[in-house]
TrEMBL record:
Gene Ontology cellular-component terms listed: membrane
Lineage: Eukaryota, Viridiplantae, Streptophyta, Embryophyta, Tracheophyta
Keywords: Kinase, Leucine-rich repeat, Membrane, Receptor, Repeat, Signal, Transferase
Organism from which the protein derives: Cocos nucifera
Compartments where found: Membrane
InterPro entries membership: Inactive_SerThr-Kinase_ABA, Leu-rich_rpt, LRR_dom_sf, LRR_N_plant-typ
Name the UniProt record assigns to this protein: Putative inactive receptor kinase
């Protein structure tokens, strides 16, 4: 070997190696920072097992510490043992304030699930850097503040559940980029936004729960703005919001070819209902507690429909079916 090359190796290689994290991997240092936010852990599962791995110096065999701490409760590693792919800490009664910025840069993280704890904190734009995230479930906690727009950079996202928290502010734009998003559950928060705009940004969402928020506006939209969502959605729950104005037009409603459940109850929708003739898969329709008027569409009572539950109570309908409507359940 060329002497200069040898000299180069001797002089520079050790220092180059020195730039690698000396004892813990990037993922481990992120999770150790994340753990600092957990102030109370009644089961002891997280605090006790999430301890820094022994530095390699203490092991005379010279083997490096494994990059992914597979012995930590709730942490799963990829097949090579190098990266953390999942953090699952559901229902442990954890309390504290999560600093989501600590997780930025966990490039292989596919799942983050903290559902059913007493955790608080705000989402930060840096969450948008979790490029591999498929599943984000923060439901049933005390998280608050707006949903940052950079969440729309999570292109791998399939399942987003932020339900039952205190999220507020305007629904972010950019959801039209989340082509893989199949389940979006934002139930019971304080989120705002024009429902027409929100629905027109949905692409392939099959399960959509926006109930119990402050979405406003009517459902009368241009069909082309609704066609992506209408093609995909099976479950749509828009109940208990501040919707007002008209229901979907006949032309739009016809596009919802896969729709099985539609709940728009507890809003202030007015005007007449369109024809439901083409919605052959519709099993549940709830539109109770609105200001809808006119005749109840007759096809809702035909056996050609799959309808098993109908609630149109608390409206201003007229005509021959009206006496059945306070409330009407057909099983
Ligand atoms: C040292 O590393 C080897 C190989 O990874 C492992 O089997 C052994 O348990 C380690 N010993 C200690 C004291 O950590
Ligand atoms: C979201 O989380 C809540 C509470 O944990 C759960 O009941 C609900 O089924 C979840 N939504 C979806 C779409 O899985
Ligand atoms: C829609 O959501 C509300 C409250 O969030 C819930 O009570 C209702 O059962 C849901 N509707 C359907 C049809 O699942
Ligand atoms: C439909 O989409 C177009 C273009 O994106 C927009 O300009 C228009 O306001 C939308 N219409 C409704 C009713 O949302």
């Amino acid at each position: 070997m060329d002497l200069r090359l040898l000299l180069f190796y001797f002089l520079f290689l050790p220092s180059a190696l020195g730039h690698f994290p000396s004892s813990v991997s990037h993922d481990v240092s992120c999770l150790l920072e994340f753990k600092k936010g957990i102030l109370s852990d009644p089961s002891g599962l997280v605090i006790s097992s999430w301890t820094p791995p022994q530095p390699p110096e203490s092991n005379h065999s010279g083997a490096a510490a494994p990059a992914c701490p597979s012995s930590w409760n709730g942490v799963s590693c990829d097949a090579s043992g190098a990266d953390v792919v999942s953090v699952f800490l559901d229902g442990l009664g954890l309390r504290g304030e999560i600093k989501f910025a600590t997780l930025a840069g966990m490039r292989s993280l596919r799942e983050l699930s903290l559902s059913g704890n007493f955790l608080t904190g705000r989402l930060v734009p840096a969450l948008g850097s979790l490029a591999s995230l498929h599943r984000l479930d923060l439901s049933g906690n005390l998280f608050y503040g707006p949903i940052p727009g950079r969440i729309a950079e999570l292109w791998s996202l399939v399942h987003l559940n932020l339900s039952c928290n205190d999220f507020s502010g305007d629904f972010p734009t950019g959801f039209q980029n989340l082509l893989g998003l199949k389940e979006l559950d934002l139930r019971s928060n304080g989120l705002r936004g024009h429902i027409g705009l929100v629905l027109s940004h949905m692409r392939n969402v099959e399960y959509l729960d926006l109930s119990g928020n402050e979405f406003y506006g009517g459902l009368l939209m241009e069909s082309r703005n609704l066609s992506s969502l209408a093609n995909a959605v099976k479950y749509a729950n828009l109940s208990s919001n501040k919707l007002s104005g008209s229901f979907f037009s006949s032309d739009s409603l016809r596009l919802f070819r896969n729709l099985e459940v539609l709940d728009v109850g507890y809003n202030q929708l007015s005007g007449e209902l369109p024809s439901f003739d083409s919605l052959r898969n519709l099993k549940t329709l709830r539109a109770g507690k609105n200001q809808l008027s006119g005749l109840i569409p007759e096809e809702l009572f035909r056996s050609t429909m799959s309808l098993t539950e109908l609630d149109l109570s608390g409206n201003r309908f007229t005509g021959k079916y009206v006496t059945f409507c306070i409330p009407l359940h057909m099983i």
